[in-house]
Amino acid sequence: MSTRIERLDSGTLLQAVSARADLSSAFRAAALLFVTVLTIVAAQVSIPLPFTPVPFTLQPMIVLLGGAALGSRLGMSSQVLYLALGLAGLPVFAASPVLPQGFARLLGPTGGFLMSYPLAAFVAGYLAERGFDRRYLTSVLAMGAGLAIIFVCGVAWMAWGTPHVGLAAAVRAGLLPFIPADIIKIFLAATVLPAAWRFLR
Question: What is the pTM of this model?
Answer without folding.
Answer: 0.87
